[in-house]
Amino acid sequence: MNRRGGKRLLVGVVLLLTGAALFVSTFASLNRGGAIDQQNRAQGKITVGLSEPGRYYVWDHYRTVFEGERIEHRSDFPDGITIQASMSTGIPVDFRPDSKRSWSIGNHAKRSVGYLDLREPGDVIVDVHGGVGDRILSISNTDIRGELWVGLRGFGFSLIVMAIGLPVACWGWIARSRSSSVASSAA
To answer: Beta-strand (E) ranges in the chain?
Structure first.
């Protein structure tokens, strides 16, 4: 690699390989179906620390991976499950049913069950009654754009790295080829 352009070619190839590895890693993550938010089995009390006021949705992850196990259910949340919420201080928090929001990416899909309008930050206890605990829930204020960014940013970064690596590799290859042809014509 002591010929002219050899270092540029090496850097370009390393960038291309790094971009390809990042692309494959992102695809594998989406294919696994893991969630971004902390998931909990839908049974009993779930305590979640929420750091700012706002609207927090309770999500039913009907297609996901939880504790290494693939979970897949119908997208309808089962009847007979009731959800109540309160602050850890005992102050009740209104839970409002709402199943209008849904999200799916890769092998992961979720639908909103309802939401909590939190007036102040703190620990919230969500009490789930009924059912057999086979559903997986999470509580978050993440919007769809935020989840899309988290889920797909690896593809964007990999394309940027490969877009930089390709011209650098070509530049190094051209410089190296010219160096080789000049060396062979001088001999």
So the answer is: 40-41, 44-50, 54-66, 69-72, 82-87, 92-93, 95-97, 102-105, 108-118, 122-129, 136-140
